[in-house]
Amino acid sequence: MGQAESRPWMDPARSPDERADLLIAQLTLDEMIGLVHGPMPNLLDTPPADAARGAGYVPGVARLGIPPQNATDASLGVANPRKVRKGDGATALPSGLALASAWDPDLARQAGAMVGAEARAKGFNILLGGGVNLTRDPRCGRNFEYLGEDPLLAGVLVGEAIAGAQSNDIVCTIKHFAINDQETCRHVVDVQIDEGALRESDLLAFQIGIERGRPGSVMSAYNRLNGDWCGENDFLLNRVLKGDWAYPGWVMSDWGGCHSTAKAALGGLDQESGEQLDKQVYFGDLLKTAVQEGEVSFERLTDMVRRILRSLIAHGAFDRPSEREEIDYEAHAEVAQAAAEAGTVLLKNQGLLPLAPSLKVAVIGGHADVGVLSGGGSSQVIPVGGAALEIPVTIGPSSAFSQVTYHPSAPLTAIGARASMVSYADGQDLAAAMAIAAQADVAIVFAEQWTTEAEDVPTLALPGDQHTLITAIASANEKTVVVLETGGPVSMPWLDDAAAVLQAWYPGARGGEAIARLLYGEAEPAGRLPISFPRSVDDLARPEIPGMIFGPPEEGRTIPTSYPNVQQHKGRFSVAHPEGAAVGYRWFDRQGTAPLFPFGFGLSYTAFAHEGLTLEGGETVRARFTVANVGDRAGVDTPQLYAVIKGADGIAGLRLIGWARVALAAGERREVEITADPRLLAAYDVALPGWRIDGGAVAVSLRSDAQTVTLSGETELAARTLAP
Questions:
Q1: Does residue 69 contact residue 126 with C-beta atoms inside 8 Å?
Q2: CA-wise closest residue to 301 among 15, 31, 7
Q3: Does the predicted TM-score (pTM) go above 0.70?
Q4: N or C: at which end does the chain have fewer Cβ atoms within 10 angstroms?
Q5: Chain-centroid distance, C-alpha 498
Q6: What is the pLDDT of residue 465?
Q7: Environment class of residue 63 by beta-carbon count within 10 Å: exposed (0-12), middle (13-18) or buried (19+)?
Q8: Could you give the CA distance from residue 44 to residue 481 in angstroms, rounded to a whole number?
């Protein structure tokens, strides 16, 4: 008798649902309980032999061929927490904001496929990637992991990255569900927001990402939403995710994000992750007792297990177990470099860039002689061969698990290979830095801002005396370029003094080489901002970060109440979100406030024109137009389509409804068509429930960024409703 006959759940010809049901019938109660919780293997005295030593582990059931679940962080590369896998480096992608700045779904898929391939080759079958929390505050310490402030852009790109990762026969998550928009007090904050606004913003990003990427798992967020923990939030998990969206996969908790047994299980949580970080193991013996006593039905437990098994089967992790393999790190570094080049944004250029190789160059600051900066936390990638520099963190919540880490791709080396002469100063001695700047044809100042999981930055200012340094160098040499390696937007009091500004974010494994190629015109700047740069924190919906305190946030801590939109109660605090769905550029548009740099902004070494916009209405908006490269160099344009739509709050506002990424040779022209997702033309009506398009005239504009209109028109939409 063959395996398919004796073990029909192993038959790949059967559907994932059928195979999962066949397995459920074979499992004992103890085996089922064993599949819905697991530890961090690195915190165990003796990790299991089949644990891949990553972020999470759930034992399999060998007698039935169910593989263990081995999970690794994260979206930007395979992490190695506490370096427990000795000498095991990985390829670091640029930050999520860099990837989002490329506005390129194909590149997002390639990047996800690269990380997924390394995860699989290191023995993992679950990648804890897919971060898509919208940027509601530019000071959030984890913004660098995510994909910006717009639900369409973020949702499309995260979906493609997830699909790429899962092409390796592993499961990828989408996270953190939902509205984890600040790291400050993330374990206690209670986010208050209306359902309609939530559906039109953060939930829409998740919905689009799930539709495009079909992630095997969803990771819940730490925070509360409208009173309930996200990991036991019936509205989020049962009504929206599993009900309205018919999501078939499983919901795992974030590490330390499970708070109960019956309430969590009945609220939609399917698996407790990193159980040592919770107050107790809620989904082990406590869940078994709850099932035996009828507090949690046996049917609910089987649903939890079925969802896990179905995803492992559907995404190949069951039939093609992950095995350690050789990795082509050179090829993967090329993917990271391509992403860095595509996602770097040219913010200012007064004719200085691209640089000529004949120029004498002074390079200053930012540890540019060593490497490029990366962000901290669970997404931290240890580079192949080791870090170029690691600086201990001695204070703050991240000090327990973060170091300021530089990838060994030194901009100084890459620039030195191109310049006729190069000198370097670390910027600590201001007079010395000004002296070499004055003697050079061009000064390049590298400025940096380290951000990390578990902490927000209290200000938009660059840390230390970097603003003073930049101003001083610009006074010594009017041809000063500023290269920013930051986790998000920063203020620029020196902007008028600099001749050029390049936003490189955290540029990843080949960041130094990518920056040099862009500076010298070997690569074309094509990035467009996925996030608005405010002029001041006073222009934000919350000028001060609610609950900003120093030290680990704990339930019961006294929270300062001198913040707007904050109410303290029962050892936690709630934060109102009066901006609703008006996140980022929508907020600036609503307030009539001009940001320092708008969403979608980015310069090029060539010039583009948009011509001949025609619009078709009806069930959605279809736009046709021509993009022309009217400059003398090849380049990439990203025309963006916007509409003015009335939302659930009854206020009409600007929305991105589509875009195109168009690479053109000098003098080339191309016709482009964009079709809008109709949900972006609708208001969410909680009374339906669902999306409602009232019908009638809608104003549509083609723009080079959220504030710069190139063409505009109007079309008629038909009244209709859409399911949630």
A1: yes
A2: 31
A3: yes
A4: N
A5: 30
A6: 97
A7: exposed
A8: 49
Nearest Cα neighbor of 50 from 73, 76, 70, 29 is 70
Q: What is the pLDDT of residues 651-688, one digit of tens each?
A: 999 999 999 999 999 999 999 999 999 999 999 999 99
Residue 481 near residue 519 (C-beta atoms within 8 A): yes
571 confidence band (pLDDT: 50, 70, 90)? low
Task: Report whether the peptide linkage leading into residue 13 is cis, meaning its omega lies within 30 degrees of zero.
Answer: no
Can you say whether residue 580 is alpha, beta or left, with left for phi > 0 and alpha for psi between -120 and 50 degrees? left
Amino acid, single-letter form, for residue 671: E
The two structure tokens encoding residue 19: 């195979």
**Through-space distance between the first and last CA atoms of the chain, rounded to whole angstroms:** 48
| Residue carrying the six token digits 């669902």 | 690
Reading the block at residue 708, the tokens are 């710069």
What would the two tokens of residue 321 be? Answer: 């177990």
Q: Are 573 and 673 in contact (CB under 8 A)?
A: no
Assign 376 to helix, strand or coil.
strand
Measure CA 83 to chain center: 23
* Phi, psi for residue 423 in degrees, rounded to 5: -130, 160
Pairing of strands 696-705, 640-646: antiparallel
Residue 558 has pLDDT above 60, yes or no: no
Tell me if the bond preceding 176 is cis, omega within 30° of 0: yes
pLDDT recorded at residue 2: 54
Specify the DSSP element, H or E, that contains 576: strand 572-576
Round to whole Å and give the CA distance between 543 and 245.
Answer: 35
DSSP 330-353: HHHHHHHHHHHHHH-EEEEESS-P
H or E element, residue 151: helix 151-166
The pair of three-digit structure tokens given for residue 476, joined into one six-digit string? 């010594």
Residue 561: pLDDT above 70? Answer: no
